[in-house]
Specification:
By secondary structure, this protein is α/β, with parallel strands linked by helices. The protein has helices at residues 9-14, 22-35, 51-60, 75-81, 108-117, 143-146, 152-158, 172-175, 191-195, 198-202, 238-243, 256-266, 271-276, 281-296, 309-329, 338-341, 345-349, 363-382, 395-406, 420-428, 433-440, 446-462, 480-486, and strands at residues 65-68, 89-93, 123-127, 132-136, 148-150, 168-170, 180-184, 206-208, 211-213, 220-225, 246-249, 277-278, 334-335, 412-415, 466-470, 474-479. The strands form 6 sheets. A 5-stranded parallel beta sheet has the order 4-7-10-1-11, with helices on one face. Helix 12 packs across helix 14. It is elongated.
Length: 491
């Protein structure tokens, strides 16, 4: 690249290079991308008409930005993607700690070097990927960490007064001059530390140890935070909120389809799993429904949110369950089963925060209940009759009743690790189960037929036509009335 051949300030001037502020860089490059109809935030789903337009307006307005939203709403990812809107390379005075603009240096080092060497001042180039600085706000973050402090050792060695700018050890913010600077979980920052950000946001200068240091920083600030009522850990103080020009609310995906797009783009799937395990859309829908159920559950704290990471982790766990089963049974290929979905409880537990932690509705029981609720919600998409089966007096109700009646004298114990052949054999035992699936879904391939047969059994159980018991190695289906007398009924 021709720019990288420029090594001195004179060469930079001769090339007619114009140094822009970081906010102008973002603005100008965004304008070009909008005109070219390029998507800056590729891979961010569900925000096309809500969050992304607000971010673009904030950038065009040269605003600092605070993204407010519950966990797992891609706030940090969006912030990191904004580096794409910076110029590819930025010139600085070589050796500068604070990315000094060669035309207008702000540090003592930069000013002195420019004064001494003039047009021969050496130039270095910084790639946009390096112009991103991120700090997680924690209660132990100090002003020295963010802004800087006087270095007494440097002052002693150089025999300088503490007010001399040469004795300052710069913190993260000055070192992020002419960059994007992101503070995650802003409410966790102590109030007195938040106060230290006032002048930086409004006036662009900093003050260290009571010594006023005019230091006009050029930074695009971005903050992320959960809504203020999320926890009692802290909040964003009002004067700081007043200085952040744009507050943008994020949200969870509003449809199953969007949620599936997110999971597909983020889940880590091996080549072996991709080539040998079939995942029908019905299972993907069911998996996403678990997150939707969790966000509405009375047992899950709605203020903490349910991250998209729940679905991503559950998807990966479900695939691994199918893979393990396939390896144990010796099958070369397999299709994901409902029993594989039931194995994702370990992936759910850490992603939900209970309202009554430690009560009888423990995390495991609630996770299992969420899966069952998801099955119930999705079941009527395929088996609408289950909602009012007792009221129906037609062939459809008779067909379902023939399945239910079969269990009055039989039980079905579906082992989690059954081979494909044995899985099919067990399901074929149930009267009319295959017939009703073939009648309702005549175009399904064989593996799809058996998946829907299993799904129908789980659906009948969720609508209280059968009893289902979750055992360590299997799911047992039996007559509802018989299980009540035997004590095996699962509530």
């Amino acid at each position: 690249m021709e720019l990288l051949k420029i090594k001195t300030l004179k060469q930079l001037k001769d090339a007619g290079f114009e140094v822009k502020s970081v906010k102008d860089e973002l603005r100008d490059n965004l304008i070009q991308k909008i005109k070219a109809k390029e998507n800056v935030f590729q891979g961010i789903f569900g925000y096309e008409d809500t969050v992304i337009p607000n971010i673009e307006r904030a950038i065009l307005s040269r605003h600092s930005i605070n993204m407010l939203g519950l966990r797992g709403q891609a706030k940090t990812r969006i912030a990191r993607m904004m580096t794409q809107l910076l110029d590819e390379y930025m010139p600085i005075i070589e050796g500068s700690e604070v990315n000094d603009n060669p035309f207008e240096p702000v540090s003592y080092f930069g000013k002195q070097l420019l004064e001494q060497k003039g047009d021969d001042t050496p130039i270095a180039w910084v790639h946009r990927n390096v112009r991103y600085v991120e700090k997680l706000a924690t209660p132990d973050v100090s002003i020295a960490d963010l802004i800087g402090d006087v270095d007494p050792i440097k002052a002693a060695n150089l025999k300088l007064d503490y007010s001399d700018p040469r004795v300052i050890h710069f913190g993260l913010i000055p070192r992020a001059n002419r960059c994007l600077f992101v503070i995650n979980e802003l409410p966790d920052l102590q109030a007195r530390i938040q106060v230290a950000l006032f002048n930086i946001l409004q006036e662009g200068d900093i003050q260290i140890r009571g010594f006023q240091l005019r230091f006009p920083l050029d930074i695009q600030f971005m903050f992320t935070a959960n809504p203020e009522d999320y926890t009692n850990r802290g909040s964003i103080i009002t004067p700081l909120k007043d200085r952040i020009q744009s507050q943008i609310m994020t949200h969870y995906p509003k449809t199953i389809e969007l949620a599936k797009d997110i999971t597909k783009s983020e889940a880590r799937v091996t080549t072996f799993q991709n080539d040998n395990i079939t995942i029908p859309e019905i299972v993907k829908d069911l998996l996403e429904q678990i997150s939707f159920e969790a966000r509405e559950s009375e047992f899950v704290d709605e203020k903490s949110g349910v991250s998209a990471r729940l679905s991503i982790s559950a998807y990966e766990t479900m695939l691994s369950a199918a893979e393990r089963r396939m390896l144990k049974s010796g099958d070369s290929k397999t299709t994901v089963r409902i029993s594989d979905v039931m194995s994702v409880i370990p992936a759910i537990i850490g992603k939900i925060e209970m309202v009554y932690e430690g009560e009888q509705e423990g995390a495991v029981n609630v996770s299992y209940a969420l899966i069952r609720s998801a099955i119930r919600t999705q079941a009527v998409t395929f088996f609408l009759e289950l909602k009012d089966l007792k009221k129906l007096k037609n062939n459809s109700s008779e067909t379902y009743n023939s399945i239910i009646n079969w269990f009055s004298s039989n039980k079905l114990d579906l082992l989690n690790d059954l081979s494909e052949k044995d899985f099919h054999k067990e399901l074929d035992r149930v009267d009319n189960l295959k017939n009703i699936v073939n009648e309702k879904f005549p175009a399904l391939p064989e593996e799809g037929v058996y998946l829907m047969m299993e799904y129908l059994l789980h659906s009948l159980a969720e609508y209280s036509y059968l009893n289902k018991s979750k055992l360590e190695r299997s799911f047992k289906f039996e007559d509802l009335l018989g299980s009540m007398f035997s004590g095996d009924m699962e509530l």
